[in-house]
What we know:
Strand order of the largest sheet: 1-2-3-7-6-5-4
Amino acid sequence: MLQFLKWGGLTIIAVLILCWLFIWFVASGVNETITYTEKDFFKYHTLTDKSIAQAPRISDEYYFESHPGDGYEPTNSITFKGATGIAPLKVYLKELGYIRDRRSLGEKEIWLKPGQSSGNQFYLYFNAATGDAELTKVLNN
């Protein structure tokens, strides 16, 4: 019985330490923008929105960003370097049921689902001079 209490106590202490470490790990990056690639397995699979993860890759060099919001809607984006165009991204957005809005946000195109102006939306940006392209999803759930 004493052996059971000893191992039970050690197990409880180990679980509490692991829970504290997990909470500290998650809370440490709560209000920060996180930049990562597909090679960052944990970040990629926990932070990347499904529609961003499935976006066509228009260049070989790209990375992801997750913005928690901090007073704004959270966003998730994929940024491409050295892209020659964004036509595949426009086709992809159309396949998802989005249409380009007449409004824009600076140089970014706004894509909405018809009749859902307050729902999720995408921003699509392309700089032909640098080859930088960005697809951002704003999560307005």
